[in-house]
Amino acid sequence: MSTTSKPPQGDPSAAARRRGARPLADIIGAALAPACRKRGFTTVDLVAHWPDIIGGVYAGTTQPDKLAWPRLPKGVESETSEPATLTLRCAPSVALRLQHELPVVMERINMFFGWKAVGRIKLVQTPLRRPAKHARPRPGPLLPADAARVTATCAPIADDGLRAAVERLGRAVAQRDRR
């Protein structure tokens, strides 16, 4: 029998190596949870699975914004909670069509939760919140030595069009490596 040495129990890096890579979906939920709770969503599930819930037609033109639960009078504890109001951001171009389909949308949301969680949907016609796009870094300058190396490497290519295309590719790669 061969004996294998186990890493010490207190070594967190060893546990991470054993576990391997984790899917981003498992990590992102924990990061979004505080922001979602602030907007009334007790879990990230509605926001994370919104395209699946709403369907392809409205996936890119709607976003759940806020889930408002009705307040109970002080001292009253309800066995059955009243359904919430979902504030839904939508593009103005789809608001009228979506208004007519709200009962179906509400049914799909409640089916997702497994109980009548949403009793009313309030549409707000505002631009959707999109994540900020980061500009790509501009490529660094092409050094004369790199340009000469690319030209010399591509010189044996007989076809002029192919040689020009390969040179452009070589220059782009050399510039990208300079970033």
Rg is: 28 Å
End-to-end gap: 53 Å
Q: So what's the CATH class of one domain? A: Alpha Beta
| Portion in helices | 40-55%
The main sheet orders its strands as 1-2-3
Mean pLDDT score: 78
What fold name stands as the CATH topology of one domain? GMP Synthetase, Chain A, domain 3
Shape designation: elongated
Number of helices: 8
Instruction: Flag low-confidence runs.
Output: none
Q: Which architecture of one domain per CATH?
A: 2-Layer Sandwich
Number of strands: 3
User: Strand share of the residues?
Assistant: 5-15%
Order of helices and strands: HHHHEEHHEHH
User: Strand count, sense and closure of the main sheet?
Assistant: 3 strands, mixed
Structural class estimated from helices and strands: alpha+beta
Pfam families: DciA (PF05258)
Protein name: DUF721 domain-containing protein
InterPro entries: DciA-like, DUF1159
Helix and strand topology:
Blueprint: H1 12-19, H2 24-38, H3 45-48, H4 50-54, E1 62-68, E2 84-90, H5 95-100, H6 102-113, E3 118-125, H7 144-154, H8 160-177
Parallel strand pairs: 2-3
Antiparallel strand pairs: 1-2
Helix pairs in contact: 7-8
Tell me about this structure.
The chain has 179 residues and is an alpha+beta fold. Among the domains are: 25-71 and 82-125, 2-Layer Sandwich (GMP Synthetase, Chain A, domain 3), CATH 3.30.300; 144-177, no CATH class. Helices cover 44% and strands 12% of the residues. The chain has 8 helices and 3 strands; from the N terminus they run H-H-H-H-E-E-H-H-E-H-H. It has helices at 12-19, 24-38, 45-48, 50-54, 95-100, 102-113, 144-154, 160-177; strands spanning 62-68, 84-90, 118-125. It has a 3-stranded mixed sheet, with helices on one face. Helix 7 (144-154) packs antiparallel against helix 8. The longest helix is centred in the C-terminal third of the chain and has 18 residues, at 160-177. The protein is elongated, with a radius of gyration of 28 Å. It starts with 11 loop residues before the first helix and ends with a helix. 9% of the residues are buried. The model has no long low-confidence stretch (mean pLDDT 78). This is DUF721 domain-containing protein. InterPro entries: DciA-like, DUF1159. Pfam families: DciA.
